Structure formats: C-alpha cells, structure tokens
Amino acid sequence: GQESIGPSAQATPVDKDEFKNTGGIFGAELDLAANATVYLDSYFQEADVDYDKSFGPDGRHRTKNQASTIGARTQLTDQLDLDVSYSQSLNARQEKPASLNDVSELQRDIARAELKATLNDNHVLITGLEFEDEAYKASSANLDVESEHKSAFVQHEIDYGKHDLVLGLRVIDHDNFNSHTTGNACLLYTSD
Prior knowledge:
Blueprint: E1 2-5, E2 9-10, E3 14-15, E4 19-33, E5 36-50, E6 60-75, E7 80-96, E8 103-120, E9 123-138, E10 143-160, E11 163-174, E12 178-189
C-alpha cells in the first residue's frame, strides 16, 4: 500500500497582552488496497484569553479544544462507496483567577457509517447512520449530564452545472428530546 501524510503544523505561541495560543493539526492516510483507505485526522488548540481586567492581572480563561477522527473508506463498486468513522472531541474551559475556579467541559463521541451511491453524472444519493454520546460537566453549577442520540439520514445531491441542489432528511432519536425529523434544502453556486 501507499502512505501519505497530510498537512501537519505546529503553531508558534503568540505572546501578546491579551492572548496566548498554541495548536496544531495532523492528518494521515494509508491506502491498504486498490479501493480501501484508512485515515486519521487530529486537531488541538490551547489558549489563554483575557476577558475582564477587573479580576486583576489573572482575569482570563484557558480554553482547550481537541478532536480526532479515525475511519476507513472503500469503493465497493464503481457507483458505491462506504465510509465508516469514529470521532472524539473535547472542549474545555477553565476560568482564572483561582477564586472563580470554574471548569466546564463537553466531550462528544460519534460513530458514523455512510453509503454513497453515484446514480449518474448528475445525481448522488448518500444514506447513513450516526450514534452520538455527549457528556457535559460544569463545576460551578455542579452539573454532570450525559445524553445520547441515534440518527438515520438521506441526502440527494443534484448537479445542474454551475448550481447544485442538496436535499436532506434526518430522523433523530434523542434520549432527552425524544424523536424528531428535520429536513434541509440548499442551493450551491460555483463561480468561474
């Protein structure tokens, strides 16, 4: 197989009065066979941000964001592709100074399977299933909440030359908000 490493960057910390930031991205793909690829994407960022000098020199908060996805895609036939992935993300925030001592974080785990059928040159049909688990914690409010939802979706992409019409429908079963259905329509324009 072939191996390709995608864009990789390490940001240089920015040292200003109101902002300090460090982050990076990483991506890699490995071709296992003629029509099968395994991929990994990862992102992280940490920052200190001033928000109110009335708290004194430490009136700031620290944020931390990270996300990773691992997946595999394969071409089953000339018209049919399968993509299966697992993603995990974490968004955290800590207030400073220590007298506030508020920490909040949101973690998401998502498993997804998507089947893409190219019907002809102008029509693509995408169907899939998704399972998402969320956990939210906030120390100041003494919150520790978890929820999960399952969804099935279908999307039809129609190519009209410079215009694309995208129609979608998603059925969601959420353990906190019950089941519901959402629709989506989007018209895209490609300029020269």
